[in-house]
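TA notes. Do not distribute before section.
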Amino acid sequence: MYRSLGCTVVEMLSGKPPWHKLEGASVIYYIGKTNKPTYELPDDVSSASKAFIECCFKHDPSSRPSADDLLRDDPFICDASTLRDNVRL
């Protein structure tokens, strides 16, 4: 689940999914064989965003924060909540 979330955030920020340079079945091979996906982020992505993504891609589940911890304490999520409260729709 965490990897999926991290991949989604990477794609939302960069417009490209992780491993976007690979084709077809080779993506499946790399997902299973590597601990961390390869991806590129724009230069203006915040350090909080990068740290959040890194948390999502930690291979060892015991070293990742829980969903509750992320929602309560992570600067990327907290910044987004503040932004949402200040944006008129």
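Switch to the second chain here.
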Amino acid sequence: MAKEECIHFVKKVLAHAMARDGSSGGVIRTVVIEEGGITRDFTPNNKLPHTSWLETEFEAATFVPSGESIVVRDDGAAVVAK
């Protein structure tokens, strides 16, 4: 995973958790530690990633009946194993 992709992922995950936690503080502080130095970032509440379940970035969930399994193919798609 590229550094920028990782930072976006971490902020997205934290924003989702913060949406369900009333005492989180409402901001994200990230620190990237690399061989060449340390980079600090502050994301205020009004710049947090959007956390709607309706986002196009995510695929719709599929109901999997009890007793069935999900298999993730090489292309990254998840399918119900029959």
